[in-house]
Structures are given as structure tokens and as C-alpha cells.
Write a structure and sequence with these properties.
By secondary structure, the protein is mainly alpha-helical. The chain has helices at residues 8-28, 35-42, 46-52, 56-82, 88-102, 106-115, 127-144, 150-172, 176-194, and strands spanning 219-225, 228-233, 239-241. This is TetR/AcrR family transcriptional regulator.
Length: 245
């Protein structure tokens, strides 16, 4: 930025410019966007925009810095929640839901998507940042299961990181009503992949519950009956008991 806004009015103007830029980037793409289009969207004079930003790349870097700040905070909170040793499914549920809600803001969604289009334009997000996330995940997996070898934990973390980002990117490129089913599949995939490795004495075959009526794996627990867990199928809406216990 050319200068930092100090007065409340200036801070509000910068906020409008950043939000408008994100919306324009989403609508027409970064390459087709101009500073005049951003100023018009923000309902501010082009001269006011140039007081703070010399060009659209500077605006994008401001969005990137905001995204980095928020992602760092979210990741710290998610990893801290893992220390509570809740079931893996609850941890995955929280992680996916947290980022699903976070990326509803176009200011952050556009930065994330743009990274997969032109990573060379980024200042803060690079391979070292990805490697740091992978190491954090690997450390977390070993805390969950101390029997897990370092090399195996790193391989699991790398696989999760790559698959999760690819599937999340696909979900974010869909219209809003089409995202939730994809989020649900991300959760199911991560739980199925990680469950055999995130408990001591792992490597056993994981029991995967499916609906006996439609064979869907999109289930939710729905209380107990006769001492057995009852499930509700999210696809066909029917209930059934876990007969295996």
C-alpha cells in the first residue's frame, strides 16, 4: 500500500476497495480486471483508490496478506482443537465446516482460487508455507497415534494436503447450492483414509457404515435403541441400527 489508512473514514474506504476488488476478480477474472472497474464497484473515485494502491496487483497483495493472517489464525485454532482428542470424525467435520464458512467471503475465496491459477504472483503463499502445513499435520497425526512412524505420518499429511486442496478447489468453483454435497464427500474421504492410522494399534481394517437401504455412506448418528447405535441416512432419509455390535 502507498499509505496506511489511519482515520476511520479512510479505513472504511480501503475495506470497500478490497471487498469490491474481490467481487470484480470473481466476476471477470484477475487479468480482465482494471482499477477503474474496482473503483466503480467500490463507489469511490479512482483518485481515492490510487491514494492507497498504485495498481491492481497491490490490491491483490493486500487481499493475500489479509488471507494469510486469517488462515494462520484458523489453522492454529483447528490444531488446538485436535489436542482435545475428540474423535477423528469430529475433527474433520470442524475443519471442513470452518473453511467452508470462511470461503463464503469472496475476499478470501478469490485469493485461494487464484493461487492455483497463477502462484507466481503471490508474495506470502509459497511451497515453504505448504511444507509447514504438511509438517504440522504430520506432527498432529503422531500425537494422535504415537506408534505412527515419522515417514508414514509425513506421507499421510502430504496426501491429505494435496487431496483436500484439490477437492476444496473443485467445491469452491461450484455454485453455492452445489458446494455442500462436495464438502460432505471431502469429510467422508478424509475420515475413511485417516481412521486406520490415527489410533494406537492402528492398521486394522476400519468399519465403514453404509445405509442398507440405498448403500449411501452419508450418515449421521441418531441416538440409540436397544443398546445399539441408530443411524439416519442423509440421502434416503431412512433409519437403521448398527447390527454389528
Amino acid at each position: 500500500m502507498r499509505r496506511q489508512p489511519k482515520q476511520k473514514r479512510s479505513q472504511e474506504r480501503v475495506e470497500k476497495i478490497l471487498q469490491a476488488a474481490a467481487e470484480v476478480f470473481m466476476e471477470v477474472g484477475y487479468e480482465a480486471t482494471t482499477t477503474h472497474m474496482i473503483a466503480a464497484k467500490a463507489d469511490t473515485a479512482i483518485g481515492s483508490l490510487y491514494q492507497f494502491f498504485p495498481d491492481k496487483l497491490a490490491i491483490f497483495h493486500a487481499l493475500e496478506a489479509r488471507h494469510m493472517e486469517q488462515v494462520t489464525k484458523i489453522n492454529a485454532e483447528i490444531m488446538q482443537s485436535a489436542d482435545e482428542q475428540k474423535p477423528l470424525s469430529e475433527f474433520i467435520e470442524r475443519m471442513v465446516n470452518t473453511y467452508a464458512e470462511y470461503f463464503e467471503n469472496p475476499m478470501f475465496r478469490v485469493v485461494y482460487i487464484q493461487y492455483f491459477v497463477a502462484p507466481e504472483m503471490f508474495q506470502l503463499f509459497d511451497d515453504s508455507f505448504n511444507q509447514q502445513l504438511i509438517k504440522q499435520l504430520a506432527d498432529f497425526f503422531r500425537e494422535w497415534n504415537p506408534e505412527l512412524a515419522v515417514e508414514k505420518s509425513e506421507f499421510l499429511a502430504e496426501t491429505v494436503h494435496i487431496c483436500y486442496n484439490a477437492l476444496l478447489l473443485n467445491a469452491l468453483r461450484q455454485n453455492k447450492p452445489e458446494r455442500q454435497p462436495r464438502y460432505d464427500e471431502i469429510k467422508a474421504l478424509l475420515v475413511a483414509y485417516l481412521a486406520p492410522h490415527t489410533q494406537q494399534g492402528g492398521n486394522q481394517v476400519m468399519k465403514v457404515m453404509i445405509c442398507p437401504h440405498c448403500l449411501s455412506s452419508r450418515l449421521s448418528k441418531n441416538g440409540h435403541r436397544h443398546g445399539k447405535q441408530r443411524y439416519l441416512c442423509k440421502d434416503c432419509g431412512k433409519q437403521f441400527l448398527d447390527r454389528s455390535c
